[in-house]
Amino acid sequence: MKVTVSAHSIALGRLAGGEAARLIRKAIAQTGKANIILATGTSQFETLTQLIEEDIDWGKVVMFHLDEYIGLPDSSPASFRKYLKERFLAKVPGLKQVYLVNGEGDAAAECDRLGEIIAKHPIDVALVGIGENGHLGFNDPPADFETESAFIVVSLDEACRKQQFGEGWFGTLGDVPREAITMSIQQIMRSKHIICSVPDSRKAVAVKHSVEGPVGNLHPASILQLHPDCACFLDMASSALLTGKKFDQYERTAD
Description:
By secondary structure, the chain is of the alpha/beta class. The chain has one domain (2-252): Rossmann fold, CATH 3.40.50. It contains seven helices and eleven strands. α2 links the parallel β2 and β3. The longest helix is centred in the N-terminal third of the chain and has 23 residues, at 9-31.
């Protein structure tokens, strides 16, 4: 795992988005296309802002969506489909194909549909974050590290739901859905390259467990330590508890 620590979240996003763009361009140069995964949430704001500004032939890019709540319409301010449509898709030229997760109908059927599609599109670059409870996607602890299914239905634990409420996506904790569709741990790990963006002091404990602790499903994002090409971008706040002694590469930037 390569870990880069920036002074603040804007610099973090600039570096993460720039590295993601480099890898996307590399995939296009090598194969004529790139298959990517995009995450959502506050952790991705600056990374996506930078990615939008990069010179990429988006007409050769196929995008998959990491997760979505079950039963939430895409008109909701908390919908991840709405997030991606407004914050990303509306700001870049038309992609070759976009596959968003729809949690409003038959969730099991949606998992099957997306699973069949992604099996035909090996992922070049996955952009992910780490939750306050250490989740990866909506794979809350104890996460399923074994399932080979690409997309699964999961129950959201209280810590996860409190995070979504605390970030201002919902009016009350009771409004936060209790289930979601998420890309599985194994599907995320099949990605050729992973870019993990994690700003903010409220993620510091989760970051400590995920990148320096033992690998285990009680800290789901810890499995990223086993990925052959994962770059983790942090800021001073989210990295505050790290020793920096367990990484393949460790860098602190000045800005």
